Structure formats: structure tokens, C-alpha cells
Amino acid sequence: AAVPLLLAAPARALDASLKPSELRLGEVLRVDIRAAEAEAPLEIRLGERLFPLYPVGPKRLRGLLGFTVKASTGAMELRVLRKDRPGEVLKTLAFELRGKDFGKQNLSLPPDKAALPDRPEAGKALGEIRAALAAHTPLQRWKGLFRLPVDKGRKSSSYGHSRTLNKTKAWDWHKGIDIAAPAGTPVFAPNDGMVALAAHYPVQGGVVVLDHGQGVLSAFLHLKTVSVKPGMEVAKGGLLGKIGSHGFSTGPHVHWGVYVHGDAVDPEAWLKREF
Predict the structure, then answer these.
(1) CB 224 within 8 A of CB 184
(2) Are 253 and 156 in contact (CB under 8 A)?
């Protein structure tokens, strides 16, 4: 169902809708635009942030916005703007973002692993990964539903947990899901994409960032081996690497995160919903 719209311009402007009608933290909001104005350079504003719209058919545009665990909740408004006419609002769309309890988790690590994030090179590695996750390539590479990146594995940690380290140190919230499996288990691409990053780091172990296009990316951490190189096109089900327990890890697993314009969202939603 589409969210009711508040008109901020003449009726000629745009036909626009939002899905889903009930949105919670960790989820993705889809904005659909249909009108002659779709030929113009349009974008979306939410608060102080601007988000792109991409063509998905004749006179049709789509934008995706992700909301992390840390997003502000409550009543909100999106504004559809023309880039070539600063300040002109073509449409205002109202929606409500609701909260969600993601639970808590304690990580138990030996002292040598617990100290990895304090190493001098850890900050540089995090910057490189974040830069790769901020890509905005215009081509949509993904098709249909995503698949789990491991054929036979066990979900050992969910998205969104607040976490502590060894019961005493506050730690960052969990930005994906963990899938546990024996070391050496293959890790596959959940959908088509281009390799934006393939590297090894002290905290994250082997890392692959896969660019699915239009601001949607997947990240895979703690790999034992990496089987791809930057710039490679990988089809859904293509081999990315193999599971390990390298870096800041409690055991053999792959951490899979999905990012929309740099915001970490719940990967499991992409297994059930086509965007």
C-alpha cells in the first residue's frame, strides 16, 4: 500500500508513492516517481541529506533510502526537488519511521584479538572500507531477490544488536548478520555486482565489497581467502572467497552487511523483498 501524500505543487508535478506503508529501523524505503517531470534531473531531500533518483522505465524513477538502528524515529517528510531549480519542491511525501528492539550481545574475545582495533592501521582500514561502501554507480546490477552468501551455514548473530566486549567495554552496534560455517566454506555473491574492494585487514580479515549499483552495496568480512579483484563483475552465486576467523572474530563465519547510500540496513529484508 502506498503512503498518503501531501501535495506541495500543482497536480501536474508528479505521481509519487512510498513503500512500505509501515517502516521500521533497519528497513529500506522505496520512492517511486511517475510523470513527465521524470525526464528532468530530480532528487530527494530528507532533512539535510540529498538522495539520487534513478530511471527504472519510461517516465519512471526510483530512489532507495536506508534507515539504520541509529536513525531518528517519528513523523517525517521527503521532498522531491529539481536539481536545475534550487528550492523548488515538486512533491512532499509524509511517512512515519517506527522504532524496533534489536537486543543486546556480548562478544567474548581473547586479549590479542580484543586489542586489534587499537592497532595504528585499524583506522586507515576502516576509512578504506567506508569509502568503498559510499559508491553511487548509476547502473542497477542486482536482479530480483538476494540469496544467502553461504549455502550451508547457521546465522550466529542478527542485525542491529547493541554490543559489549568481554562484558565491560561498550562496542559498536552490529551492522549486518553473521553466518557461521566451517573454515574454508565458500562464500558466494548474493546478487550481481562489481567488486569495489578486495583486501585483507587486521580487524576485518579478508574483505570484499560488492557494488550492486544505485547506492546498494554488500560487504563481506573475516574471510580466510579472497577470490576476486577490484573491478571484476561477479554474477549472483559467483565465488567471492572462503570463510575464516581472521581479525576481530569469535569463530569461523562471514559477516554480511548491506548498505544503501552508506547506511547499514538489515540484509535479511533483501532475501524476502524485491527492491
Answers:
(1) yes
(2) yes
Does the pLDDT of residue 133 top 60, yes or no?
yes
Backbone conformation region of residue 87, classed left if phi is above 0, alpha if psi is from -120 to 50, else beta: left
pLDDT of 94: 95
The stretch 76-92 carries a mean pLDDT of: 89
Cβ-contact 160, 173 below 8 angstroms: yes
DSSP 8-class letter at 122: H
Distance CA 140, CA 123 (A): 31
* Residues contacting 58, CB < 8 A, separation 6+: none
CA atoms of 159 and 46, how far apart (whole Å):
24
**Residue 244 DSSP one-character state:** B
Closest among 56, 59, 31 to 45, alpha carbons compared: 31
Report long-range pairs for 30-35 (Cβ below 8 Å, ≥24 apart): 30/62, 30/63, 30/64, 30/275, 31/62, 31/63, 31/64, 31/65, 31/78, 31/80, 31/93, 32/60, 32/61, 32/62, 33/60, 33/61, 33/62, 33/63, 33/80, 34/59, 34/60, 34/61, 35/59
**Pairing, β 23-24 against β 89-98:** parallel
**pLDDT for res 11:** 39
Q: Which pTM was predicted?
A: 0.91
Is residue 87 predicted with pLDDT exceeding 60?
yes
Position 4 confidence tier, pLDDT thresholds 50, 70, 90: very low
- Residue 96: beta bridge partners? 75
pLDDT given for residue 38 in this prediction: 55
